[in-house]
Sequence to fold (456 residues):
Amino acid sequence: MNPNAHRGFISIEVAVVLFIVLLAAVVGLPRYSQYIQELEWKTDSRQLTDVAAAAKSYIRDNRDTLVSQVSGGTPVYRTGAQLRDDGYLPAGFSLTNSAAQSFRVAVARNPKATQKLIAFILTQEGTEIPYKGLRYIAQGVEGAGGYIYTAGIAEGAWGSWKMTLATYGLTGATGRLAVYLSSEVLGTDVAESDRLYRYAVNGRPDLNRMHTSIDMGENNINNGGTLNAKNGVFSDTVHGTTGTFSGDISGRNGSFTQKITANSDITSDGGWLVTTGNKGWMSSTHGGGFYMDDNNWVKSLNGKGIFTSGQLKGGTVHADGRLTTNDVIGLNKISVENTACPTVGDISRDKTGVILSCQEGIWKTSSSTGEFGGMFTLGSADLWNYHRKNYGEVKNEKGFSYYASRECDPNTLTNSCSCPSDDYTLYISSTYSIDDAGCANCAGSKSRNTVFTCIK
Fold:
């Protein structure tokens, strides 16, 4: 068999294969090229989305300054490099897209509301992106992505918005990208600044400030530090370690495990300042104060003296040491010479001011010579008839009549209601009243008892 008989058929088969490969290359290479191009455009979309987010953060953080800067109608620009340097974009973020176009943020005044802002992210420089690429990239941008196909006019993907840039004092070249940030997206003082930020924003303390009440719905605020407040109103028990308040605190109960520090007065309206244990009030500056460590005495801390330009008043005053005065001693009590006195050593005066001292139970002056003959007590006259009937009348030689009775508190020197002898003069020292519970015929009356003193 001739070996060259099939050579023609082999050539035909190879040609068919080569044709198929060539056809695939003609059809596939453009598609592969388009696939690679679309990958680049998707990257451009994500990149433009990131720049738009950075621009929104920058504008929100500097809103008050920007409102002032654009108030005259001139827009303010911020480049991608400046956003990156200010920390709004990552340090390694690329500042150009696949067409070598750079990013620029343009902030302008809203013509219909001058206290509101609008902004555009516009690309510049580089090469033009074809219309197909503009539409592809714009529809992949999160938010109001768009492009500039006709110079000076920015329009959104699928015709979602259209803006004449000159209205805002801006320009834009053909074949560039755009993102529109409306006033609603950027927010206003009311709509945006009242949003509470979790972290401090430099130059914007108002972003960490509430402008309205917070209703926690009976939920807790946990892991807080120092609570600084002007007023506090609590409907239940308050527990705390430390607290600083510049105004009033109002509550039902309060329990603190450590000290409470106030930079002003602590006032109780109608209540007590109650302490337990052996402590009370103390001045930390001077080391004095008041406390009680038993049931009888209010004591001065650290033995501090008590000073007042007013008056100290009490039932009795007792001094363990000397009693001195820089003025005179005023004796308001008036006593009668040669009458009974309560305690030996007491000092008094008579109605003329003569000083009396209690000697042997009798008020005496320094020149008194009388001799004390004891003292006794008798019941009142309205009882004497009762006692006279039952116990008989007694009369001494001086002619003083009285009646032996159950109301007689005898003279210790005579063991009776009488003086030691007729040489003594009988003086009325004092009178006092007691209830007459023991008198069956004197119901409801009071016994006015009289104290007599014998003086010679």
Q: What stands out?
A: Residues 7-61 form the longest helix (55 residues). Residues 150 and 174 are 6 Å apart (CA to CA).
